[in-house]
Amino acid sequence: MEEISLQELFSILRKWSWLILTLLIVSIALSGIVSIFILKKQYEANTTLMVGKPRDYHGEGNIDYNELVLNQKLVSTYGELIKTRRVTDSVIRNLRLPISNKDFISKVSVSLVKDTEIIKIQVTDEDPKLAARMADETARVFIEAVKDIWKVENVQIIDKAQVPKHHVRPRVKLNIAISAVLGIMIGVFVAFLIEFLDNTIKTSEDVEKYLGIGVIGEIPEYEN
Fold first, then answer.
1. Do the beta carbons of residue 171 and residue 41 sit within 8 Å?
2. Are the C-beta atoms of residues 183 and 23 closer than 8 Å to each other?
3. Please, which residues bridge with residue 124 across strands?
4. Closest CA to 195 of 62, 7, 4, 27
5. Under DSSP, is residue 58 helix (H, G, I), strand (E, B) or coil?
6. Which architecture, in CATH terms, is 43-159?
7. Which of 12, 22, 29, 196 lies 20 to 30 A from 203 at CA?
8. Helix ranges restricted to H, the chain
9. What are the extents of the domains in the chain?
């Protein structure tokens, strides 16, 4: 197998630098156009819930350790309940959303803060105001579902959703950075591919290298 020296590698990169630079610019331009003008902006609103009564933390008396442990165990169960049809269908119906249950679930994510009694409901939508409404309504319907199923009132809303001012997706800078790296990688790959497929002899060095024949003279090329 033919070995290529480091000097030859740099020579190839320098020779095809215009191609690599062109692909880099094209990749960045396409990524910027798609991210800014084509991809729709997505806004994220958050509602924070707590399992357990606030007086357990701030009221008078000692904290019931067993109750805290039980509440922490219920957090994961409640997290699954939030995305059940019992809750999602009610939210869709209450807000009169023109989407299916599957589409609604794709917009909602539930995160559980480890070793705490905190549940965060995150809703992503193209409309920032609707995202906040969906988050708050999901929390409200979920609390009602807990009351109906377990016959307890141990979930409270800590923070209601605020209308987001800035979109979370698309991430223009990140997309451009990724496209720049891909553009360079593709440019380098194409450059080496062209060199690999090119089996013509262009210089006296190529004659000595590939044919093993010494060069005794060269015929110069003149434009006129």
1. no
2. yes
3. 44
4. 4
5. helix
6. 2-Layer Sandwich (3.30)
7. 22
8. 6-15, 17-33, 55-58, 65-82, 85-95, 101-107, 128-150, 172-197, 204-206
9. 16-38+172-211, 43-159
